[in-house]
Amino acid sequence: MMNDFAETRAFAKVNLTLDVLKKRADGYHELSTVMQTIDLYDELYADFSHEDIAVTADFDLPEGSVAYRAAHEYARRTGCGGAHIKIRAHIPEMAGLGGSSADGAGVLRLMQRRYGAMSGAELYSLAAELGSDVPFLLHGATALCRGRGERIEPLPDINLCYLIVKPAEGISTRQLFSALTPPYGEGRSEQAAAAIRAGDMDALAAAVSNGLAKAAEKELGSIAEIKRRLKSAGALAAEMSGSGSACFGIFETLAQAQRAAETFRDMAFCHACAGIGNTEQM
Description:
Blueprint: E1 5-23, E2 29-47, E3 53-57, H1 66-78, E4 83-88, H2 99-115, H3 120-130, H4 134-139, E5 142-147, E6 151-154, E7 161-166, H5 173-178, H6 189-198, H7 201-207, E8 209-210, H8 213-219, H9 222-232, E9 237-240, E10 247-251, H10 254-261, E11 269-274
Parallel strand pairs: 1-8, 3-4
Antiparallel strand pairs: 1-2, 2-4, 2-5, 5-6, 7-10, 7-11, 9-10
């Protein structure tokens, strides 16, 4: 007899690099980014004993959220049974850590494990429609992603330890991209990917970058200050993740990241963690 209850973890990500290459005809920006999932996650719980679809959370979840659309679109396209899904959040909002996309990917994993009503290609296509980071976050690990983020090239696992720091203020992704004007600058994603393939930590640290950081720092001055403090605390590299406002520092060990966290008690969010591998079965 099939169990009516299931759960999964929806892991956050960091952008080790984020290159903005050009603005496309469809209004989106062409990106190249190296991402890694990290040991920071929301918890998702599903009850499949219901006939309808419902998604709730311990925070204000809008009806048009990625998680809500993931559940409803999966059911609409497949005609599968129902699910009541509850999200317990730990990933901060408006942080550039992929929280809403991770929740959407987690919902898709739960629905697919229960009903298996989509092919791998169909599931991936739906993920890409839901959001730029959702396809990557279906599986996680480390990857070089291109386009809007939907073209994924897996990279070897590399053991990285992070300190994630976020100020109280967030940044609107839409507003940040709207403020960008060419030229967009040189990208470092290919350099970072090559460093990961070679297992060269020094080269990777030198490649860490974010093409949105300057625009974000103009909007929120604390981002530059957090990056400076991370480097002062011993980070090999420090940068903003995604569209911010969270920043990360890379440390040689988790213990070093945890010690550095003691100097950020004035911040709204601070979390020492490690990068993790494939999240598909979690």
